[in-house]
Specification:
The complex is a heterodimer of chains A (318) and B (404).
Chain A lengths: L1 H9 L1 H13 L6 H25 L8 H18 L6 H20 L4 H21 L1 H4 L5 E2 L8 H24 L2 H10 L1 H6 L4 H27 L1 E2 L1 H4 L2 H14 L5 H20 L4 H15 L3 H20 L1
Helix pairs in contact in A: 1-16, 3-8, 3-11, 3-13, 3-14, 4-5, 4-6, 4-11, 5-11, 8-11, 9-11, 13-14, 13-16, 14-15
Chain B lengths: L3 H21 L8 E7 L4 H23 L8 E7 L4 H14 L5 E3 L3 H11 L6 E3 L5 H7 L5 E3 L4 H15 L6 E7 L2 H16 L5 E7 L7 H10 L3 E5 L4 H11 L6 E5 L6 H5 L4 E4 L8 H14 L6 H19 L4 H9 L2 E4 L2 E4 L1 E3 L2 E4 L5 E6 L2 E6 L15 H4 L2
Parallel strand pairs in B: 1-2, 1-3, 3-4, 4-5, 6-7, 6-8, 8-9, 9-10
Antiparallel strand pairs in B: 10-15, 11-12, 13-14, 15-16
C-alpha cells in the first residue's frame, strides 16, 4: 500500500488537475447537474471537516451543530442586520470556529464514545435553542433569505469550489507544518503524545476549531444557496450522519478519502433516486452496508490495494 | 489474497445492474405527456398523505389513458420523492424543471418544504400545481404568480370555518380552548390565525397554545399541560401520523376535554386507533352526497378495499384538471398551458372545480371546508348545513365511560 501511495503521490498534480476539471464540468451542463455538483462539493467540505477532527482521534456524531451555526449566523445577520448573504461562508466559518474554541476547552477532555455522545447532545441542544429563541430565529418557521449571488448558479458554483480548494489547502497545511503528526500521535495514544511534549489540548482545540469552521462555512454557503434555513434541517441527524459516513466510506485521515466518499455516496443516492422513485432508500442502505462490510479501508483503500498496483504493473510491462 | 473488496465491488455492481435492468425495461414513453410529481413518499410523518395523493393520481392517469390520453398521447407521471426535506425537494424540482423539462409539476405537501422550494425555484417560473401547503407564508411568497396554482384551502379558510363552527354550532359555546400545534410553518401560522381571528370576531374563549414537534412518538408532556388547563375543546393542528399518538396519550393520562378537535380527521386508520367522538375540520369527506364523490369512493374502495382519505380525491382531481388544461391549451407551450388551466371547469369528487382568484392567490381551487365527527365508526357531516348528515355529540363521553 505504501508503494501505491508513493505512486499516487508522484502523479498528484495530474490527478488534481483532472479532478478540478471534472469538478468544474457540472457547472456548465445546466442547472440540475450544477445543483448536483454544488451539493457534492458542499458535502466534500463537510467530509473534510469531519476528517480533520477524526485525525485527532475525535469522532463527532453531531457535526450538524457547526453546519447549523454557520447557516443560522448568516441567515440571522442577513435578516436582522442586512449583511449580504455572499458573506455566508466567512460569517458561518468564523461563528462556528468561535463556538468550537469555547466548547473545545470544555469538552475535549472527554474522550472516545463520551465525546461522540457529547457532540450529538450539543447538536440536539442547539436545535432546541434555535427552535425556541423565536424572537431572533423565527423558530420552526425558519428564515427565508435572499439567494446567493442573486441566484447566479455559476458564481455559487465558483464559491463552493473555492471552499473545497481552501479546505484542501488547510489539510495540506496541516500536513506540511507537522501538525498532522501531532494529531496522529494524539489519536494513537494521547498520554504518550503528552509525554513526548505535545500540547494535546492545544492541538485538539486547533483541530476542533478548523473542523468546525469548515462545517460552518459549508452551512453559511448552503443557507444562501437554499435560501431557507430551519432548525430541523440544518441541525438534523441526516447532516451529521452524512458528514460521518462520507469520509469513513472514502477512507479516513487522508484528503482524497473524504473527497471520494462524498462524491460516491452522494451520487449513488441521487442515481438510485432517479432509478427507483419509491423505495430507493432501501437499496441505498443495502449498498452502503455491503460497502462498509467489505471495504474496511474505504474506497481509497480499494484504489491503493487493487487499482494502483494494476496500473503500476501495466506501466512496468510497457 | 483478500477477495473481500472485489466481492464488494461485484456485489454492488450486481445490485445496481439488476436495478438498471429492471427499470431500463420500463416504457419511457417519448410519445407521452409527462407530468412531474413531487411528493413525500418515504418520510414517516408525511408519507401517508403523500402515498394517498399518489394513489389518487394513478387512478386519474389510468382513467385518462384508457380514454385516449391527452392530445392523443398517454400521460406519464415522472415521480420524485422529496422525503419531506426542503433540500431534497429543491433538488428534485430543479431536476424536473431543467433536466426532465416537464411542462408542469404537481404535488408538494408540507408548507415548510413548499415555501423553501418555491423560494428556490421561482427564478425558473415553472408551472406548479401545489396540493398542500396551507400556510399563508407560501401564499404571500408566490400566490400572485401566474405560474402558481393551488389546491388546498389556506389557513384563513380553515380557521374561519373552525371559529364559525365553535361560535355558532357548539352549545354551550366553549370558554377554554387548548391548541396543540406542530411547530413548523403550517402549525404556527394556523395557531396565529386562530388566535387573531378569534380576537377579531370577539370570540368569548380563552386560548392556550403549545407547539409540538411533528413525528414525535409521545406527547404525554403536552397532554398533561392541557389537562392542567382543563379546556372545553382540545384542538390539535398536526399531521396525520401525530393524531393517533395524541389520542393514545390522552387515554393513558385520562385526559377528558369535552371535545377533541383536529385537522383532517378522516384518515382511514383513525377509527381503530382512537375510537369515536373525535371531530375535526376537513376539506372533503367520502360521505359527501355528490355523484362524482360517490363514484370515486366506489372505485377507490374496489381498488384498495377501504375509504379514501381526502388527498386521494384532491390529487385525482388535480391530474384531471391538468389534463383538461392541456387539452384546452392544445399544446404544452407554457403560456398556452397557463391559459388552458385558467379556463378549466369541471365536475369532480370535490364538486364543481375551477381556478378562482381568492385572497392573495390568483389560482385557487378549494376554499370550502367541512366539519365532521366520528360516531359509531362512521363519519357524520356537521357543517355546512347543506351537507349535514347528523348532530354533534358534545360533550363526548369520558374514556372511563367508553370502557375498553
Amino acid at each position: 500500500m505504501a508503494v501505491a501511495e508513493a505512486w499516487l503521490e508522484k502523479r498528484a498534480p495530474v490527478i488534481w488537475i483532472l479532478g478540478m476539471a471534472v469538478a468544474l464540468l457540472p457547472a456548465f451542463l445546466g442547472p440540475y447537474p450544477a445543483r448536483l455538483g454544488i451539493n457534492v462539493l458542499k458535502f466534500i467540505v463537510l467530509a473534510i471537516s469531519f476528517d480533520i477532527l477524526a485525525r485527532a482521534g475525535q469522532m463527532s456524531v453531531g457535526h450538524a451543530a457547526f453546519y447549523g451555526i454557520g447557516a443560522y449566523a448568516i441567515a440571522m445577520l442577513s435578516v436582522h442586520k442586512g449583511v449580504p448573504v455572499e458573506l455566508g461562508p466567512l460569517v458561518g466559518g468564523l461563528s462556528a470556529a468561535a463556538v468550537a474554541v469555547g466548547l473545545g476547552f470544555l469538552t475535549l477532555r472527554i474522550k472516545g464514545a463520551y465525546f461522540s455522545i457529547g457532540t450529538l447532545a450539543f447538536a440536539e441542544a442547539l436545535k432546541v435553542i434555535f427552535l425556541y429563541a423565536r424572537k431572533y430565529t423565527f423558530g420552526a418557521q425558519g428564515i427565508g433569505i435572499e439567494p446567493l449571488f442573486g441566484g447566479n448558479v455559476l458564481l455559487s458554483y465558483a464559491c463552493i469550489l473555492g471552499l473545497v480548494v481552501a479546505s484542501a489547502a488547510v489539510v495540506r497545511l496541516l500536513e506540511v507544518t507537522g501538525v498532522n503528526y501531532a494529531l496522529a500521535a494524539i489519536r494513537e495514544d494521547e498520554d504518550a503524545a503528552a509525554m513526548l511534549g505535545i500540547d494535546t489540548t492545544k492541538y485538539k482545540v486547533l483541530a476542533f476549531a478548523i473542523s468546525a469552521s469548515l462545517a460552518g462555512a459549508a452551512g453559511g454557503f448552503d443557507a444562501g444557496y437554499t435560501t431557507y434555513v430551519y432548525p430541523y434541517e440544518v441541525f438534523s441527524v441526516a447532516i451529521s450522519v452524512a458528514a460521518m459516513i462520507m469520509p469513513i466510506f472514502g477512507g479516513l485521515y487522508t484528503l482524497s478519502g473524504p473527497i471520494m466518499g462524498a462524491v460516491s455516496v452522494y451520487l449513488a443516492e441521487e442515481i438510485l433516486r432517479k432509478w427507483i422513485p419509491q423505495g430507493y432508500t432501501i437499496v441505498y442502505g443495502l449498498v452502503l452496508m455491503v460497502s462498509i462490510l467489505y471495504l474496511p479501508r474505504g474506497l481509497r483503500g480499494l484504489l491503493l490495494e487493487r487499482v494502483a498496483p494494476a496500473l503500476r504493473g501495466r506501466e512496468g510491462a510497457s | 489474497m483478500d477477495w473481500k473488496p472485489l466481492v464488494a465491488v461485484v456485489a454492488i455492481l450486481v445490485i445496481l445492474g439488476g436495478i438498471y435492468y429492471i427499470y431500463s425495461g420500463r416504457e419511457k414513453g417519448p410519445e407521452s405527456v409527462r407530468i412531474g410529481i413531487v411528493l413525500p413518499l418515504s418520510t414517516a410523518s408525511f408519507a401517508s398523505a403523500g402515498q394517498e395523493c399518489y394513489r389518487g393520481m394513478q387512478m386519474a392517469v389510468e382513467e385518462i389513458n384508457s380514454n385516449g390520453g391527452v392530445l392523443g398521447k398517454p400521460i406519464e407521471l415522472v415521480v420524485k420523492d422529496d422525503k419531506g426535506d426542503p433540500n431534497t425537494a429543491i433538488t428534485v424540482a430543479t431536476d424536473l424543471i431543467t433536466n426532465e423539462q416537464v411542462p408542469i409539476i404537481v404535488g408538494f405537501y408540507s408548507s415548510t418544504v413548499t415555501y423553501a422550494t418555491m423560494n428556490a425555484i421561482k427564478q425558473y417560473q415553472p408551472i406548479v400545481f401545489v396540493m398542500g401547503a396551507s400556510s399563508v407564508k407560501v401564499e404571500s411568497l408566490v400566490g400572485k404568480e401566474r405560474w402558481f396554482f393551488h389546491m388546498h384551502p389556506w389557513d384563513y379558510h380553515r380557521q374561519g370555518t373552525v371559529i364559525d363552527y365553535f361560535l355558532h354550532y357548539i352549545e354551550p359555546t366553549p370558554q377554554k380552548i387548548f391548541v396543540a400545534y406542530e411547530d413548523g410553518v403550517y402549525g404556527s401560522t394556523s395557531y396565529s390565525y386562530f388566535v387573531n381571528m378569534s380576537r377579531e370576531v370577539g370570540a368569548p374563549w380563552d386560548i392556550k397554545g403549545e407547539p409540538f414537534k411533528s413525528g414525535s412518538s409521545d406527547f404525554s408532556a403536552i397532554i398533561l399541560k392541557a389537562k392542567d388547563y382543563d379546556p372545553d375543546v382540545f384542538y390539535i393542528v398536526g399531521y396525520p401520523a401525530d393524531y393517533p399518538v395524541f389520542f393514545r396519550n390522552a387515554k393513558e393520562n385520562d385526559f377528558n376535554p369535552k371535545l377533541i378537535f383536529i385537522v383532517a380527521p378522516e384518515f382511514p386508520e383513525y377509527p381503530k386507533d382512537i375510537g369515536d367522538y373525535v371531530a375535526g375540520v376537513d376539506v372533503w369527506s367520502p360521505y359527501l352526497d355528490i355523484p362524482q364523490a360517490k363514484d370515486f369512493v366506489a372505485k377507490f374502495q374496489s381498488q384498495y378495499g377501504r375509504l379514501p382519505e381526502y388527498w386521494a380525491p384532491f390529487c385525482y382531481t388535480a391530474i384531471k384538471m391538468v389534463a383538461q388544461g392541456i387539452e384546452k391549451a392544445g399544446s404544452l407551450d407554457r403560456e398556452a398551458l397557463i391559459s388552458g388551466l385558467e379556463s378549466v371547469q369541471m365536475d369532480s369528487p370535490l364538486g364543481p372545480v375551477s381556478f378562482k382568484q381568492t385572497g392573495n392567490t390568483l389560482h385557487q381551487v378549494v376554499d370550502k371546508l367541512y366539519v365532521v365527527q366520528w360516531q359509531g365508526g362512521t363519519v357524520v357531516i356537521l357543517y355546512p348545513d347543506e351537507f349535514k348528515t347528523g348532530e354533534l355529540i358534545y360533550p363526548v363521553p369520558t374514556w372511563a365511560e367508553r370502557g375498553g
